[in-house]
Write a structure and sequence with these properties.
Elements (H helix, E strand, L loop, with lengths): L5 E4 L13 H13 L5 E3 L11 H15 L5 E4 L5 H13 L4 E5 L8 H12 L6 E5 L1 H4 L5 H7 L5 E6 L4 H11 L4 E4 L5 H6 L4 E4 L6 H12 L3 H10 L1 H7 L6 H9 L16 H13 L5
Parallel strand pairs: 1-8, 2-3, 3-4, 4-5, 5-6, 6-7, 7-8
Helix pairs in contact: 1-2, 2-3, 3-4, 4-6, 6-7, 9-10, 11-13, 12-13
């Protein structure tokens, strides 16, 4: 069962000056994303600064997004942790908050082995009936899910796909070859949407889609229509913007970009802090080139 085909922005979590969740700004952003053809929304992911949210805030954010989305698109909740027991608790919070599915990153810092990854996801999967997308992002977690491990995990009925952000296209090809059409692959890097689609991918779980949701959706739509040149043009045209969005650790730049676009989404929670001036200048330049701001 696929949760979605297309583009799923990993939505940022806006904060107020006194470090509370800014639900008014969150609602404005949700509506902007859906009105501009987003195919799903991922709540409380890395881009949503989930590691700084307490359990009550996590539940409140997911419940609010579910309510405001109102079944227009699926809502997928980030539920990853480096503690399997905590991850199971996060899955329960997501289920009770009304999420349609889960995005679960590999354990980070303490990492584990490939066999440990399999056992970790088995333990999690048997405690929930929600569909699970596993998340491979070794640049942040320090551990890579090998293709053979993904294949073993694909045998678990409610593990339905992977967000693949290893940056290794050969690995994506191997996963696609091993797992076949019954396992969904989503690009985890915005610069690799089209390559992943060409290997059988279903779409992207995206940072750049926070600010250009329609164009990110259009890459997948044009590809699925067979309009490869159009899809390629969308992908290449956004590359400089994507690079600017990753000039510093995510989500620092994308929150700066949203602030420049008139969303009150620029405040970060420690340990994240404001962008360096030289990187802000480059981001503004690329946003102007893309006609996002004047």
């Amino acid at each position: 069962m696929s949760l979605f085909t297309g583009s799923a922005p990993a939505i940022v979590t806006p904060f107020t000056l006194d470090n509370k969740i800014d639900f008014d700004s969150l609602e404005k952003h949700i509506n902007f994303l859906i009105e501009n053809n987003s195919d799903a929304i991922v709540a409380c992911g890395t881009t949503g600064e989930a590691s700084t949210l307490n359990n009550n805030e996590r539940a409140d954010v997911i419940s609010f997004i579910v309510e405001k989305v109102n079944k227009r698109v699926p809502v997928i909740a980030g539920a990853g942790s480096n503690n399997t027991t905590t991850c199971i608790e996060f899955c329960d919070i997501a289920k009770k908050s009304g999420a349609d599915g889960l995005l679960i990153v590999t354990p980070y810092y303490n990492k584990t082995t490939q066999m440990g990854l399999i056992e970790n996801y088995k333990l999690i999967a048997k405690t929930t009936d929600l569909p699970i997308i596993i998340y491979n992002v070794p640049s942040r977690t320090g551990v890579n899910i090998e293709a053979s491990t993904v294949y073993e995990l694909s045998k678990i009925s409610n593990i339905i796909g992977i967000k693949e952000a290893s940056g290794n296209i050969s690995q994506v090809a191997e996963i696609s070859n091993l797992c076949g059409n019954n396992f969904d692959i989503y690009a985890g890097n915005d610069s690799e949407i089209l390559p992943v689609l060409s290997l059988g991918g279903k779409g992207v779980i995206s940072t750049v889609a926070n600010i250009i949701p329609k164009d990110t959706h259009n890459i997948i739509e044009e590809f699925n229509k067979g309009n490869i040149n159009e899809a390629r043009n969308y992908q290449l045209n956004m590359l400089n913007l994507i690079n600017a969005l990753f000039s510093e650790v995510n989500p620092i730049p994308v929150k700066q970009a949203l602030q420049r676009m008139g969303f009150n989404n620029g405040i970060l929670r420690a340990p994240l802090f404001k962008m360096e001036d030289k990187n802000v200048e480059q981001l503004i330049k690329e946003m102007r080139n893309y006609k996002l701001i004047s």
